[in-house]
Specification:
By secondary structure, this protein is of the alpha+beta class. The protein has a single domain, classed as Transferase(Phosphotransferase), domain 1, CATH 1.10.510.10. It has 2 helices and 7 strands; from the N terminus they run αβββαββββ. It has helices spanning 8-22, 62-81; strands spanning 32-38, 41-46, 52-53, 84-85, 94-97, 100-103, 110-111. A 3-stranded antiparallel β-sheet has the order 3-5-6. A two-stranded antiparallel sheet has the order 1-2. The chain has a two-stranded antiparallel ribbon with strand order 4-7. It is elongated, with a radius of gyration of 15 Å.
């Protein structure tokens, strides 16, 4: 068991899933540059994004709501086209940066090929 409290198998699976998400390159997805393990701890090197989460924003304009949803759907469609499922879609993982949606925490994603049907 590592210091992170994960079994070797769980750590390996988490690394594989994070690496799958690291392959995603899309304007509405926070870029993951690398996934590493050091001394039994896993860490993700990702794009620094300065924005507010969807949870922290109060958006009442219908056109803006629709635009946010369009960008979010495009990000998810891109991930799905690359066999990645997000698994933790919530307002805290949707950042708004200068009018653009940035989906984050794709490191919690799972490769669709690892999901049993």
């Amino acid at each position: 068991m590592s210091d992170a409290g994960l079994s070797a198998d769980s750590q390996s699976r988490l690394l594989d899933e994070a690496r799958a998400a690291a392959g995603l390159r899309y304007p509405n997805i926070v870029t993951v540059y690398d996934v590493r393990e050091y001394d039994g701890l896993l860490f993700i090197i990702m794009e620094l994004v300065d924005g507010k989460s969807l949870r922290d924003e109060s958006i009442e304009d219908l056109d803006r709501v629709l635009e946010i949803n369009r960008q979010l759907c495009e990000a998810l469609a891109h991930a799905h086209q690359h066999d990645v499922i997000h698994r933790d879609l919530n307002p805290e993982n949707v950042l708004l940066v200068d009018g653009q949606v940035k989906l984050m925490d794709c490191g919690l994603a799972r490769s669709m090929t690892s999901v049993s049907h």
